[in-house]
Amino acid sequence: MRLRFIVLSLLLLADSAHATPQGWRWYNTPSSPTQQPKPKPPPMLPQASVTQTPPPKKTLTATEQMQWFQGYMAEVQNKAIINPTVENTLAFMRLSNFIDGKTTDFGMTWKEALLEDPSLSYRMKHPTESLARQTQNAQIKARKVAAVESLASEGYGLFFAYNGNTPLDQQLAPSIQAFADQYGIELLGITLDGKPLATIRDNKRNDGKLNIQTSPALLLVNPKTNSIKPLAYGFISQEELLGRFLNVATDYAPDF
């Protein structure tokens, strides 16, 4: 019994020797339990891509639309020709009617637009009605005659260079003399081949003074300034010759 007590006492002492000694206040404060590392959050799953609204389809320009339509029409027409069934022919006929309608619509819109801006109308400057044309032609003729008279008053005259042995020159000569007489402009005939024409009142030989390779030729000449301006080569009517004077007088300004 005593032996058991001794053994028990020794065990208690041994246990007491290994105990943590007491200290001041916090020294023997139980240490915080070892914190376990927080589990890492699971990797983020990739978010499902948001379905984006597809971009709007490109609007074709008017030129692109026309190019497409022309190709489509060619296909319909060729199909009707290569395989002329009733169905294919009707398809082309319907397409042709559609085009006719568009053409009519454009024509009517054109007329409406001219009423919005009359200055764009060709008929404002060039009327097509007979009575209006007569009035306008008379006005144009007056401008041409005024141009001849104005140049004549500035000292200009006409040189008519010709070959007396050429039938075309012979035929033109009386008309040129009549023109000069009618509009009061001086005329001098210049014979290139040495043969004068009786239908021209005043003639001289060229003798190499004028370098003219083509006849007949009409030259507008101003002796005061030694200015020479070609008016016409070849056969020309009096009406057209009047227009040439107007061209020179207005420095070839457009009349349309």
Automatic annotation (TrEMBL):
**Disordered: annotated span:** 25-58
Q: Which UniProt keywords apply?
A: Signal
Q: Keyword check for Transmembrane, yes or no.
A: no
Checking InterPro entries in the record gives: TraF (IPR014110), TraF/TrbB (IPR039555)
* Comp. bias (Pro residues): 36-45
Renumbered to this chain, the signal peptide range is 1-19
Instruction: Tell whether Cell division is among the UniProt keywords.
Output: no
Organism of origin is Photobacterium iliopiscarium
Protein name according to UniProt: Type-F conjugative transfer system pilin assembly protein TraF
